[in-house]
Amino acid sequence: xxxxxEHEWMRxxxxxxxxxxxxxxxxxxxxxxxxxxxxxxxxxxEGDEVCVIxxxxxxxxxxxxxxxxxxxxxxxxxxxPALVNEDPTGDAWFFKMKIDDLxxxxxxxxxxxxxxxxG
Length: 119
Description:
Helices cover 19% and strands 37% of the residues. It contains four helices and nine strands, in the order βββαβββββααβα. The strands form two sheets. The chain has a six-stranded antiparallel sheet. Strands 4-6-7 form a three-stranded antiparallel sheet. The chain is globular. The two termini are 18 Å apart.
């Protein structure tokens, strides 16, 4: 897995990149009560707002960590947003992207670097 400074994780599955938020982010948000997912077939650029998460504490945006196309979304989160708190790095992924160059992931933190980043 790779990690962003915005507390998102990325995992490669075949030629797709799966994106979610870290356990640290889920804990900071508190109980998630609503998730708005992007449309599939949407082209995004790194830094674009892609999802909205609302918790009992605040609303937060999930940003596209890479340039690419959203090819699949996790509709389970619409019906059960609490899944983000229950399994943030597993079943609670947000979307899958198709990107041009998987080498772009090399610019992001690995697990040890992310652990140092959050202290």
